[in-house]
From TrEMBL:
Region Disordered, annotated ranges: 452-474
InterPro entries linked to this entry: Alkaline_phosphatase_core_sf, Sulfatase, Sulfatase_N
Signal peptide limits: 1-22
Keywords: Hydrolase, Signal
The protein, known as: Sulfatase
Source organism (scientific name): Ravibacter arvi
Boundaries of every Sulfatase N-terminal domain copy: 30-338
């Protein structure tokens, strides 16, 4: 009898251990793969109207997940946009503006917490591949901001001796492994392939533990380059070839996740850092009918594609018209993974409710459009966008550039403000401020509150809650 009781006890213990093991496996937090594409415009995907090439992997992501049609990059320029993405803050809150280069003595402040740091504290393996652009000195590179490994370039791919306008202003472009330069002036036609392969390798190596992979593609930022796999494949020249190779990259990641059985436990996010650099003509993308492009706070400068896929969590084929921003990625990932939010104030809000199927949710009602050093150029609330008079870039009325050379454009054109109903007028063509003084007053009140918080060079406000950028001593 005692032997039978002991055998029953062993069987029960084994069953309990097995259940506990299965429970712990099921409770493993999801992996995260975040793909940030440089200068890809709203109209650069087949699903948003691109012609002359196909983007089957982007399209399949949309069919199997969610497309966010009113998603905004944190700002309309490289460095500031990345700062907002990785910290969940308006870039100007943490001292960022514009795009820093090899002469900068600034970078991401160590006091700010990145997505990688938050997930690393949760037990994740973390890696960054591709373009960083948040400071090139060692103290600012990814391994000092929560990433276990890094392989990529420290700033934009045009910041090298062959720059089309400023020849020989930039030093050789470094390719960095960890914090050390391993190559200079690398073959840019291999960028998309090499950074994709490194990402896939990282996923395979960490398939049995939670991981965060940040893949920041340098393309299609000029100078454009593509591997032989896609050279001459599109009907839109080199730019189309580059987008096709980026689509291939997304396909490689999705295939890897599927082959490893990780689709149901991985949140895949793909988006762009700002709109197309229109001055480069046939080497630039499309804003899909939105006004202006990169370097402006109009819709074409900041509204960009955003796709997310998470099998079994995100319903298939969802289009969300809710306002969303790159700053919302951090709190969304935090809520999805059970990580902790940063100790300091952030500006992002979690989109997880939308991702789980509540497409009527409106976690973000307001978007502030800052540019230049610290100019509040526009504010959106609901369907309404109020643009303030401001000097800025325009490409309207100018012939675009060709084959890698930029057209003239204008950098200090005085834009006249107005009120736009983005539901009916996403191209921001029809100023209806005189018809809706109550809405102008409402958005002006929001802008004044933002000026008190973050400042505004256009109105002379300093702002109370801005934090210093990281610096290096001379």
């Amino acid at each position: 009898m005692k032997k039978k009781q002991f055998l029953v006890f062993v069987i029960l213990c084994a069953a309990m251990f097995g259940a506990a093991f299965r429970f712990s496996s099921q409770q493993r937090p999801p992996n995260v793969v975040l793909v940030y594409i440089d200068d890809m415009g709203y109209g650069d995907l087949a699903l948003t109207g691109a012609a002359g090439y196909r983007t089957p992997n982007f399209d399949e992501m949309a069919r199997n997940g969610i497309f966010m049609s009113h998603y905004y990059a944190p700002q309309a320029v490289c460095t500031a946009s990345r700062a907002g993405l990785l910290t969940g803050c308006y870039p100007n809150r943490i001292g960022f503006a514009g795009a820093i280069d090899h002469t900068a003595k600034t970078g991401l402040n160590p006091e700010e917490e990145t997505i990688a740091e938050l997930l690393k504290a949760r037990g994740y393996k973390t890696a960054a591949f591709g373009k960083w652009h948040l400071g090139f000195q060692k103290k600012f590179l990814p391994p000092n901001h929560g990433f276990d490994s890094y392989y990529g370039i420290p700033y934009s791919n045009d910041m090298w001796p062959n720059h089309p306008v400023n020849k020989n202003y930039y030093p050789p472009l470094p390719l960095i492994e960890g914090t050390e330069t391993v190559e200079t002036n690398p073959d840019q036609s291999q960028f998309t392939t090499r950074f994709t392969e490194r990402t896939v390798e990282f996923i395979k190596q960490n398939k049995d533990k939670p991981f965060f992979a940040y893949l920041a593609h340098p393309m299609p930022h000029v100078p454009l380059a593509v591997s032989d796999k896609f050279k001459g494949k599109s009907k839109q020249g080199l730019y189309g070839d580059v987008i096709m190779e980026l689509d291939w990259s997304i396909g490689q990641i999705r295939k890897t996740l599927k082959d490893l059985g990780l689709q149901e436990n991985t949140l895949l996010i793909v988006t762009s850092d700002n709109g197309p650099w229109l001055a480069y003509g046939n080497h630039a993308g499309s804003a899909g009918g939105l006004r202006e492009g990169k370097g402006t706070s109009f819709e074409g400068g900041q509204r960009v594609p955003c796709l997310m896929e998470w099998k079994g969590v995100i319903p298939q084929g969802v289009i969300s018209n809710s306002i969303a921003s790159g700053m919302d990625i951090l709190p969304t990932i935090v809520e999805a993974t059970g990580a902790k939010l940063p100790a300091r104030k952030i500006d992002g809000v979690s989109l997880l409710g939308i991702l789980k199927g509540d497409i009527s949710a409106r976690p973000r009602e307001t978007m502030l459009f800052y540019y230049r050093k610290n100019s509040l150029e526009a504010v959106r609330h609901g369907d309404w966008k109020l643009v303030f008079d401001h000097p800025g870039r325009t490409n309207e009325g100018f012939s675009p550039g060709k084959d890698g050379q930029p057209g003239p454009g204008a950098e200090n054109f005085m834009h006249t403000g107005g009120l736009y109903d983005l539901r009916r007028d996403p191209g921001e063509r029809y100023n209806v401020s005189f018809d809706h003084p109550d809405i102008v007053a409402r958005l002006t009140k929001i802008a004044n509150e933002a000026r008190e918080d973050l400042g505004d060079d256009l109105t002379g406000h300093q702002g109370r809650n801005r934090r210093p950028i990281g610096t290096v001593k001379e």
